[in-house]
């Protein structure tokens, strides 16, 4: 497996490979959402160049939130009427949640929309974040910002999966352990698709 190790190689590998759909078994329980309107949202997959190689930026959602408290996620949120595009949604939410400004972010790609159980259609955007970024965390939304080496994120052996049955259908969930953090849910679904596109495609 040839992993991207630099800005140039990551852009080349992402842009020269066909987009990959999300794992079918991870979407089974969403069949009831077919033909229903979904609210638009976006997240930012931020890559940071370090001496040790590329890293990916994550947030840990505030523990007091009503929905998904304490869960690891990418910065992002729902589209507002003032957002010109969904890319603007990802940039705005990143600034609001963790204080990284638009001029420190360079978007270079986007992934397929991902429907969620909360009736959102989420578009992930890939971007480089300036390595000297400073964070101003909105404690109403985020408890922590941290980075994970890209080699961990793209290693299929690091990606755990398990299945359970809902309405007589098999549903698959993914997860990655990294230190004291466990990445799962929608974020791990996105990581699985990113692995499929960059590593297995």
Automatic annotation (TrEMBL):
Keyword tags: Hydrolase, Magnesium, Manganese, Metal-binding
Family of the protein in this entry: Belongs to the Nudix hydrolase family. PCD1 subfamily.
Single biological process term from Gene Ontology: nucleoside diphosphate metabolic process
Species per Swiss-Prot/TrEMBL record: Vibrio ponticus
Sequence ranges assigned to domain Nudix hydrolase in this UniProt record: 37-172
InterPro entries: CoAse, NUDIX_hydrolase-like_dom_sf, NUDIX_hydrolase_dom, NUDIX_hydrolase_NudL_CS
One term of GO molecular function: manganese ion binding
Domain of life: Bacteria
Pfam families named in the record: NUDIX (PF00293)
Cofactor(s) for this UniProt protein: Mn(2+); Mg(2+)
UniProt-recorded name of the protein: CoA pyrophosphatase
